[in-house]
Amino acid sequence: MSHSLLRGINKTGSTIYKRSIHSTMSSRTPALNLKTINPLILDVHYAVRGELAIKADKYTQQLANPQLKSGSNTNNVETLNNEVEELPFKHVVTANIGNPQQKGLNQKPLTYWRQIISLLEYPQLFQDSDKKELISKIYPSDVIERAKTLYEEIGSVGAYTHSKGVLAIRKRVAKFIEERDGYPADPESIYLTAGASAGVSSILSIALQEGDGCLIPIPQYPLYTATLAYLNAKPLPYYLSESQDWSMDHETLLKAVSEAKKNGTPVKALVIINPGNPTGACLSKEAMEQVIQLCYEEGIVLMADEVYQTNIYDPSHRPFHSFKKILKSMPENISNSVELVSFHSISKGVSGECGRRGGYYECVNISNEVMEQVYKMASVTLCPPVSGQIGVDLMVSPPVKGSESYELWKKETDLIHNNLKERSYLMAEHFNKLNGISCNPAEGAMYLFPKIDMPKKAIEEAKKRGKEPDVMYALDLLDATGICAVAGSGFGQEPGTYHIRVTALCPETKEFIGGFEKFHNEFMEKYKD
Hints:
pyridoxal phosphate binding; PyrdxlP-dep_Trfase_small; Helix Hairpins; globular; transaminase activity; alpha/beta; aminotransferase; PyrdxlP-dep_Trfase_major
């Protein structure tokens, strides 16, 4: 397109000019293309919502719109290849992501949460005198009082709050931490966030300069490698020991630090996921003390991802200890100097409120001058979602024993916890019965990470397809059964090993096991050496 000016006269007799646009043979180059956008974006990968999840979504659309099977594009719904006539399954099993309330997983929201949130969304229900009698028949008295208190503290959920989050809620988070750990917590060092992920990304962006190294566990949650790629920082992997129930090997960690130094990479931060994602392993107190000692000696910031702290299957055998608690129990020169940032979320545990986007982080032993920068960066985003902040409040301050809502809350949370534990154990048991699969039972979290002894012929076939062997396995599993898992290569794994990650959230566990077993046996038979 080219432009020219046309001269004319308006009604008052003044000369005016209009820009005329006419076509030329040259075509405009888009301002945004893969060569002009931030090149670091191209290095960001997030396996949990990658190729497999996209294909699973297409299958879900096809099952919901049977007319699409012949390749029509009704209602602008993207179709699969025309050769797909009919799928060999009736629904997609979303075992790829820890999203408990997702359609298909269908975890029931906690009644107490939804009652309070509904009142805060429409406070006239408890403000208008003509509605008070009605709501007293629908809502328990403690729910109404809690909603009134939160309304007094927050006001409308449609308004911005303080950039750190509502102070009253941060005070209750501090109380929760104090009761959990036995050590004081400062509300001014606590930031409410849009889920733990937002907090992790924020702290990494503040802590790391270009080229800095960050120690991450392998396997790890892809958020970390994705964020490091965007920051142009260096992931420094340390491998967890699969043969020792995914425990942390201290010598491996020391080796990772030594190699980074040898390569001239400053080791700035260390990420711990406890309980582990995708492994489900819980750290021992001794292992945690070794980690803190290392951070003290090497001047490393410790980032503790503790979003699964409620999901502990056998606390008598392997209880959850927060890094804050272990740090503060160590000698004063360590407890008062090692910089720690701990993260928690409403997305996991027994609440499963992923879409509400609520979480928090606590900063310990961070200097005042750095905390000023943390606050500045939080201010840039104005405030975390208010609905998510309310969720954090309900997570850290549930109904107390003896209150009207307690018994139902206890019943619902126990059911969620026990079902998750039973499904996890059952799935691990059946995985270990299959030829060519081994699986460490999870001690916590909501995932399993079984290892597949991949036949050589399968590895060769994967190369022909241009795929990692575990990606090919997961794609074939999806095509044959509708089960959507995540390939282990998306989390990192020891070279020469292959895994998939599945959640223990699927309500039809026996159906899942049956479909998986049939596929796996056929896969191993097809590619047997």
